Structure to design on (423 residues):
């Protein structure tokens, strides 16, 4: 007799609550409600972007961290200034207020963590060009952390203040595949990326991160990190750099914008990319925070955008399986 | 040729300027100079323009506003050093559709 696993290739999961990320046709057992459930993949509520409060200081090439209702933005650049920023701003779900300044002003830095436990690392600085500086935020001020082993700008970043991840970027005279892991005080080497790149989109945590596109030159490749090695994932629909992203892991991600000044957004479910609602304001080098389905896009270029947009992901219909005698 | 877009100038005040339900009904495109492109002959778009106190512009008027902003940004970029240019992109011309 055919089994579900034999047909689908995986077993029915026993879950205490409905998953937020699933494959069309997936069946699972909800142990809280004692019912079997299935999704047909039908979208019940479409995704949407809404404007959020404007940034106090418009900028691009900044880093982002936190959530849609407790976001953090730091560093960045006004390309026509030229000014590198040390400013930090905190978002509360409706407006931005100023936080403590970074010690090292920089752009094309990476960041991760939360609004009260943020991490800033790498970046572009006047001299020597690439920074190895790490700073830790406590909700009001930044203090120095352990330096990166490889100074770099435009890397990707993911994770938390005590379990951070830095990958790629431009360092050592070229694009790099180098990955480093932070433990709250120092960086150690992780598995190298398959493809060197800078200006890479990023999402996830130290043990489940996603590297999205980037430049070397502009690439469409995507890689997934599992805490020790990078694996090639499904490529982007087209090459993309300076793309923003939000996602709590490497299987639930929304990527938005990118060069040349794009408004469109795409969703990644661990297997494939699909189009979703576009932002109201096209941009590249925007910062991202939050998750898919509750993401945040802020700042970006060209110029120094102050725009914030809040992403609400699509809601897919879930049906309870009933049996009849 | 029938118009497919209309334009207005409206300052994005932030939260509530475009709400989720607006964005589900209307395809927005925010442009330099606080110019917003929305569908023409569309009741939801018309209501949104009223809500945000948008000042309706013809395509040519909107294009002139966008051109002025883009030209200013391009001039600023052109004045940068080569080092700074390498880390940013020259703002591109934007051609509005009817």
């Amino acid at each position: 007799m055919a089994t579900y696993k034999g047909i689908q290739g995986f077993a029915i999961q026993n879950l205490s609550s409905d998953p937020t990320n699933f494959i069309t046709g997936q069946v699972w057992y909800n142990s809280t409600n004692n019912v079997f459930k299935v999704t047909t993949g039908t979208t019940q509520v479409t995704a949407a972007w809404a404007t959020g409060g404007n940034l106090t200081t418009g900028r691009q090439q900044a880093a982002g961290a936190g959530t849609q209702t407790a976001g953090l933005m730091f560093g960045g650049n006004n390309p026509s200034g030229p000014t590198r920023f040390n400013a930090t701003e905190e978002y509360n779900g409706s407006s931005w207020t100023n936080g403590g300044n970074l010690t090292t002003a920089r752009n094309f830095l990476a960041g991760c963590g939360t609004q009260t436990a943020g991490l800033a690392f790498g970046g572009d600085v006047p001299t020597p060009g690439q920074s190895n500086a790490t700073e830790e935020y406590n909700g009001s001020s930044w203090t120095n952390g352990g330096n990166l082993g490889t100074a770099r700008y435009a890397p990707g970043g993911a994770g938390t203040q005590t379990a951070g991840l830095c990958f790629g970027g431009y360092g050592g005279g070229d694009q790099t595949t180098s990955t480093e892991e932070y433990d709250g005080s120092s960086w150690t080497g992780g598995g190298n990326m398959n493809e060197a790149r800078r200006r890479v989109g990023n999402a996830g945590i130290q043990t489940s991160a996603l590297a999205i596109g980037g430049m070397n030159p502009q690439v469409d490749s995507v890689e997934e990190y599992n805490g020790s090695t990078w694996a090639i994932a499904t490529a982007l629909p087209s090459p993309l750099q300076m793309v923003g992203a939000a996602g709590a892991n490497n299987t639930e991600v929304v990527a938005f914008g990118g060069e040349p000044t794009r408004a469109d957004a795409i969703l990644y479910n661990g297997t494939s990319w699909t189009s979703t609602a576009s932002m109201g304001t096209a941009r590249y080098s925007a910062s991202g925070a939050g998750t898919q389905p509750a993401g945040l896009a802020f700042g970006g270029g060209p110029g120094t955008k102050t725009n914030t947009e809040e992403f609400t992901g699509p809601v897919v219909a879930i049906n309870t399986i009933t049996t009849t005698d | 040729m029938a118009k497919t877009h209309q334009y207005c100038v409206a300052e994005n005040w932030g939260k509530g300027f475009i709400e989720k339900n607006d964005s589900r009904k209307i395809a927005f495109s925010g442009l330099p100079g606080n110019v917003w492109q929305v569908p023409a002959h569309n009741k939801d778009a018309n209501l949104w323009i009223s809500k945000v106190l948008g000042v309706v512009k013809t395509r040519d008027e909107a294009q002139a506003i966008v051109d002025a902003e883009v030209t200013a940004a391009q001039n600023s970029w052109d004045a940068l050093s080569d080092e700074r240019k390498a880390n940013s992109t020259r703002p591109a011309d934007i051609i509005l559709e009817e």
Remarks:
- The longest helix of chain B spans residues 59-78.
